[in-house]
Amino acid sequence: MTTDETTTFADLGLRDELLEALAGLGYEEPTPIQREAIPRLLEGRDLLGQAATGTGKTAAFALPILQRLPSSGRGTEPVAMILVPTRELCMQVSQALHRYGRALGARVLPIYGGQPIGRQLRELQRGVDVVVATPGRALDHLGRGTLTLDSVELVVLDEADEMLDMGFAEELEGILAAAPETRQTVLFSATMPARINAIARRHLRDPVRIQIEREVPGSGESPLVRQTAYVVARAHKPAALGRILDVEAPAAAIVFCRTRDQVDELTETLNGRGYRAEALHGGMSQEQRDRVMGRLRSGTAELLVATDVAARGLDIEQLTHVVNYEVPSAAESYVHRIGRVGRAGREGAAITLAEPREHRMLKTIERVTKHRITVEKVPTTADLRARRLELTRAALHESLLEDELEQFRVVVETLTDEFDVMQVALAAVKLAHESSGPGADDEEEIPESAPLPAQQDRGPRAGGAGPAGKRSRVPAGGMTRIFVAAGRSAGIRPQDLVGAIAGETRLSGRDIGAIEITDRFSLVEVPEDAAKEVVAALRATRIKGKKVQVRLDRDGKP
Ligand code: AMP
Q: What whole-number distance in Å separates Cα of residue 246 and Cα of residue 242?
């Protein structure tokens, strides 16, 4: 991986419409995977990339696809096909293509199971440039002749390991066979098991290989930095950050965001919460930046909300905390960021907010930096209240030691004619406490989000290996079992259940645990916090074309 940090999107050779779109979205510079992949894809090379969610891999393949769209005279058949494991990813990738390709008028069609096929047919007839599809539904269209890949110049397999985990190997082979041999092929996968390498050998021509998990020089050298992560759903991130900052009470902190827009938005939110936060990003003049830095150094501001570009080279002596509001796009970037605290033997803290899907990137960072990141729970309102009382106590303690208090004696003495000294003290503490900031009482609890655990962490998927009709195992920790009233005699295979769950819920194949299939019924382990969602989704859908009775496996009996 190149360490050249000054590469811009323009340096990568992208066309103006795309550069404008990226600037409009507040992207300041390419992520490492984008720096590596985009020029090679523009040259027409095949690519085998190991990259997880959070690295910016979507733009790494989406931008080269959009680059090749002719400005006019486009046909009706797609020139690119992107295969993804889940409906959720299908929509995310389609939205990204829309955002980047708006000025080009890119026609992007998501195709996934569970969506009415009529709309997809109409769009296909009208003409599309890029199809983003789950393998089952794509093959379905190919079989019906409603989708042809004759004009396809580029095929992307995104999250290929997940697609294999979900039993889509045959579908992938079928789809790749239907695309012209002269096409370019891109394969992204978070892991590189032998099966992925085998697919790459068969279908990729002399691919460029990109791996972003290299060891980072200089990592493992910040023993004084406490490294913590919180797993929080996107919607709760601003509130969670506010709470974490309340409990940590940093003297001076820098909060990193990915884009300019995020920097501006978060600065406003934090100011609304009563912090003195300042924005710092590449869209600001040198004079504006100097002013912001001056305010941080003098203590007028306590939080700096910044992008990597803007914060590069800044050395802020009083910094106690580095916060990653998003998981950084590469371990290098994590190491650079946290290198700003814990200098010269001082203690510091690095805090990372990760979304449940980004747990793999956290693991990668741990592995590459050889540092453990402790996952902690977001402070509850009770934690917050306790912490605020502690701050009041500390302030009073300091005042008792240092302040000149005699002038207040007369107030206490007149009140003690009527009240007990303890009561007077309590009232004084209450006033001091209330004047120190807003209480936590008005805040709602933030629901807990567990990192979605990787399947390999939880033992093998049984796939009907257990003796028919017997429950051989108890669910793994954090998992619960779902009863599905259809089994071998109805032709149910593990991939049918995985496909149905991954297609209809936010879970991916990797999140699903052991599956036991007996003649009459099946049992599937899913993360406890997603169990209700899975039951509701499976009840609403069809498995192998049939409505099936589904419920939580409460009592160990079908
Ligand atoms: P991905 O790994 O493709 O899921 O992307 C993770 C997130 O990073 C998405 O929200 C993107 O919008 C964002 N992103 C991708 N590339 C960049 C970039 N160069 N600068 C800032 N944000 C980016």
A: 6
* Every domain range in the chain assigned CATH 3.40.50.300: 4-211, 225-379
Strand order in the sheet with 321-324: 277-280, 303-306, 253-256, 321-324, 348-354, 225-231, 374-376
Full-model pTM: 0.71
Query: What average pLDDT does this structure show over 147-153?
Result: 96
pLDDT at residue number 218: 60
Give the angle 337-340-346 at the CA atoms, nearest 5°: 140
What was the pLDDT predicted at 437?
64
Q: What is the CATH number of domain 4-211?
A: 3.40.50.300
User: Does residue 325 line the site of ligand 1, with CB under 6 A?
Assistant: no
What digits encode the pLDDT tens for the residues 470-509? 344 556 667 888 999 888 888 888 878 888 888 778 887 7
Q: Are 278 and 305 in contact (CB under 8 A)?
A: yes
Give the pLDDT mean for 86-111: 95
SS3 state of residue 305: strand
Rounded to an integer, what distance in angstroms lies between the CA atom of residue 268 and that of residue 276?
10
Indicate if the pLDDT at residue 249 is higher than 90: no
Say if ligand 1 is within 6 A of residue 392 CB: no
- Give distance in angstroms: CA of 54 to centre of ligand 1: 6
Residue given tokens 């601003």 in the structure block: 238
357 CB under 6 A from ligand 1? no
Q: If you take atom 13 of ligand 1, which residue's CA is the nearest one?
A: 56
CB-CB contact of 230 with 354 (8 Å): yes
The alpha carbon of 55 and the centre of ligand 1 are apart by a number of angstroms equal to 7
Alpha-carbon Rg of the chain, whole angstroms? 27
Q: How far apart are CA 183 and CA 47, in angstroms?
A: 12
- Distance (Å) from CA 56 to ligand 1 centroid: 4
> Which CATH superfamily does the domain covering 459-552 fall into?
RRM (RNA recognition motif) domain (3.30.70.330)
- Tens digits of residue pLDDT in 428-442: 999 988 887 655 444
Name, of 88-92, 94-98, 533-537, the range with top average pLDDT.
Answer: 94-98
Q: What is the residue type of 224?
A: L
CATH 3.40.50.300: does it fit domain 225-379?
yes
Cα of 429 vs centre of ligand 1, distance in Å, is 48
Q: Tell me which of 170-184, 196-210, 303-317 is least confident.
A: 303-317
Q: With a cut of 90, say whether residue 267 has pLDDT above it.
A: yes
Q: What residues have CB less than 8 Å from 171, skipping those under 6 apart?
A: 135, 136, 138, 139
Cβ(31) – ligand 1 distance below 6 Å: yes
* 3-state helix, strand and coil shares in percent for the chain, rounded to the nearest 5: 45, 15, 40
- Range(s) within the chain of domains with CATH label 3.30.70.330: 459-552
Interstrand relation of 374-376 and 321-324 (parallel, antiparallel or unpaired): unpaired
State in Å: Cα 254 to ligand 1 middle: 20
